[in-house]
Amino acid sequence: MSLISAPRRDVAWIGRFSALLRYAVLIGVGLLMLYPLFWMVAASFKPNHEIFGSAGLWPQEPTMDGVVKGWRTGTEYSFATYLLNSFAFIMPKVLLTVVSSVLVAYGFARFRMPGKQLWFALMVATILLPKSVLLIPQYLMFREFGWLDTYLPLYVPCAFATDGFFVFMVVQFLRGIPPDMEEAAVIDGCNSLQVLWHVVVPVIMPAIISVALFQFMWSLNDFLYPLIYLSSVGKYPVALALKMAIDVTEATAWNQVLAMSTIALLPSLIVFFLAQKYFVEGITSGSVKG
Amino acid sequence: MASKADIAEGATTDKSRGGGVAKGRVLLRGVTKCFGAVDVIKGVDLEIAPGELTVFVGPSGCGKSTLLRLVSGLELPTGGSIIIGDRDVTLVHPSERGIAMVFQSYALYPHMSVAENMGFGLKIAGLPKPLIKEKVAKAAEILQLTPLLDRKPRALSGGQRQRVAIGRCIVREPEVFLFDEPLSNLDAALRGQMRVEIARLHAKLGATMIYVTHDQVEAMTLATRIVVLNAGRIEQIGAPIELYRHPANLFVAGFIGSPAMNFMDGIVEAVETDGVSVRLNGATLRLPRHDAAVKPGAKVTVGIRPEHFRVGPTPTDMDHDQAVEFDAIIDLVERLGGETLAHLRMPSLSDGVLVVKISGDVPLRIGTGLRVGVRLAQCHLFDADGRAVGEPAARAVVAA
Ligand SMILES: Nc1ncnc2c1ncn2[C@@H]1O[C@H](COP(=O)(O)OP(=O)(O)OP(=O)(O)O)[C@@H](O)[C@H]1O
Ligand SMILES: [Mg+2]
Questions:
Q1: Are B232 and B63 in contact (CB under 8 A)?
Q2: Does residue B148 have a pLDDT over 90?
Q3: Interface check B158 vs A, CB under 8 A
Q4: pLDDT band at A150 (very low <50, low <70, confident <90, very high)
Q5: The predicted structure's pLDDT at residue A254
Q6: Distance between CA A276 and CA A209 in Å, rounded?
Q7: Residue-by-residue DSSP string for A62-94
């Protein structure tokens, strides 16, 4: 501010005031949108009767009751089992999604093939297809495979780049990267897969991390597919376990449900913040004129 | 040099790479390239001798890069064959052709250090680590990159990045270096410096180099031979000074030399055994030519370079040279310091504006008149098809 000379002080004052106003509005709206989240976290530490008794955020009689009982759950398994179950299919799912999406996207972005435009358009069209349309045929198919009540139907399809959105995302990212580096790698003796591994993958790491992150979060939140394919409670993931806690008893222990919801949020949050720096910093800088 | 064979693994490696007479020779035979329906290269025949630095020049879009990429193997020709050394490499993988390429954008691997960038090709070829390190260190020393070996490309300046890109080539010990406008991303000063470095490198390594540029100075100073391309065809091949003195056609005459040659339309009045008289706008010039193959009445173009006019009462080492003086009006003056470009109207020669290069200390004012001499022996003459008619007589004088 010291750079602004005396005669312009009025202007500076107006500028500061408008900035203040802007931030006040932004913070206000931000809080409003996050309020349910804060409420959920706070409610985890309230006794059950207090949750609907008062609209206040801060627990009047703080207690760990909800967390402890919620963790034990009303079933024979603890919440840890459900968390581990979630990871048991999300990990292969994320891995397969990343590998298959990158391979397919690399093909679309860099190789000539007959009818490429058409294939690409078809792939984008699958993004627009409502998921529910496929539920019944897929269910019948996986039943024939004998895969019901296993995690296979949840992640095996991802090995075939079925998530058009991710392929599309990586293709767009690749289109923004000049192919010179890859050509240099070809001259250096790489075959296509080596080019992909040694040059393309490190360069598109931000996109790959985004894919992994989105797939991770969406899968953790996914309710419908586990509900359809899993029948034994011992295999339930977090989303189903939470639902179960709601309808097993007449009077739902909401503080337990909310406490477990809060815990269920943590993996996503942790992964997101770990990956954050890759969103901020692209790593192409410096390879080409810039 | 035993490592050479190691670098190029693969079935196509043969004994001839060891160092036959033709090592480093590049031969293009009837090479064509179409992209879909577009003919980009329309039949190129070219032989590049070992150790030559050949420069491809031509207007934007004429196919210089495409031709270079055909040699590199990044594109495959539609027709014709490409021979490097003694081998027909038309369909050989780029890494096995014994070439290395420097890209305009440098194309360094952003996630690798300078040393890793330079050694990447050797690593892929499966060379042992100590050997890679040794070769990288050697190349880094040649290019003064040693203190930078651990840096990432993003922490380098443009010139340093370009040196790394060149280092990546040197490490592979190729028979042929390919450069696609390697200096065009650099500023003028750095470009001059890198140009000298490339010339020095060429002298030091003695390798064959093919160099694409549209910078006149780079082409003239670096080239052993210049290949002038236009619309996918070779217009002329020759040593820089040869192209400058004896352009074979209008295109080359207009392309080589900066500022460009002035062209004036005229009609042949008379043809004698030792000269051709050409009627221009208002005057008739008698150009010395021996047995010129034009007929009276034919449309021709007279070309004269900006530096071949004579302005003012210059004391004259060229008085033996026939010069004819004309009146001119100064239209515009561009002072470059050491010399001045004067845009002149000379109604007796042409309707258009002619550019004349004059020494920097001559006082010139826009709108004033001037006497300008035309050195007849240095005039170029082109027939209606744009082909050169005879040759300007005064070779020795041009060089002075
Ligand atoms: N992959 C391609 N597909 C279709 N046309 C192409 C392709 N590559 C190049 N061309 C066309 O070929 C012509 C020659 O291109 P090229 O890049 O060789 O020109 P250039 O002489 O290097 O020009 P510049 O000086 O601008 O680099 C251009 O008209 C270009 O549009
Ligand atoms: Mg080009």
A1: yes
A2: yes
A3: yes
A4: very high
A5: 82
A6: 9
A7: --SHHHHHHHH-SSSS-HHHHHHHHHHHHHHHH
| Residue bearing the CA closest to ligand 1, atom 12 | B40
Identify the band that residue A284 occupies on the pLDDT scale cut at 50, 70 and 90.
very low
Q: Which fold has domain A70-285?
A: MetI-like fold (1.10.3720)
Match 């490339």 to its residue by tokens. Answer: B198
Q: How confident is the model at residue A149 (pLDDT cuts 50, 70, 90)?
A: very high
Q: Which of B182, B224, B181, B226 is nearest to B206 (CA)?
A: B224
Q: Is A175 helix (H, G, I), strand (E, B) or coil?
A: helix
Contact B185 A289 (CB under 8 A): yes
**Residues comprising chain A, all counted:** 290
Residue B210, classed as helix, strand or coil, is: strand
Residue keyed to tokens 């190349």: B139
Element spanning B279, H or E: strand B275-279
Residue A166 and residue A214 in contact, taking contact as beta carbons nearer than 8 Å: yes
Q: What is the three-class DSSP state of A278?
A: helix
| ipTM score | 0.81
State the average pLDDT over residues A218-239. Answer: 90
CA-to-CA dists, residue B318 to B50, B310, B341, B359, angstroms = 40, 10, 21, 16
Q: pTM higher than 0.90 for the full model?
A: no
DSSP secondary structure code for residue B249 in this structure:
B
- Edge-to-edge strands of the sheet including B262-272? B284-288, B275-279, B262-272, B299-304, B380-382
CATH architecture under which domain B259-393 falls: Beta Barrel (2.40)
For A20, the token pair is 């203040």
Q: How many CB contacts within 8 angstroms connect chain A with chain B?
A: 88
Smallest CA–CA distance, residue B118 to chain A, in Å, is 10
Contacting residues of B for A185, CB less than 8 Å apart? 109, 120
Lowest mean pLDDT among B220-234, B239-253, B368-382: B368-382
CATH of domain B4-98+174-254: 3.40.50.300
Q: What amino acid occupies position B301?
A: T
Domain boundaries, chain B: 4-98+174-254, 259-393
Closest residue by CA, ligand 1 atom 16: B63
- Residue B291's alpha-carbon distances to B267, B273, B275, B376, B384, in angstroms, are 17, 5, 8, 17, 17
The residue-averaged pLDDT of A194-222 equals 91
In the predicted model, is pLDDT for residue B400 greater than 90? no
Predicted local confidence at residue A45, as pLDDT: 87
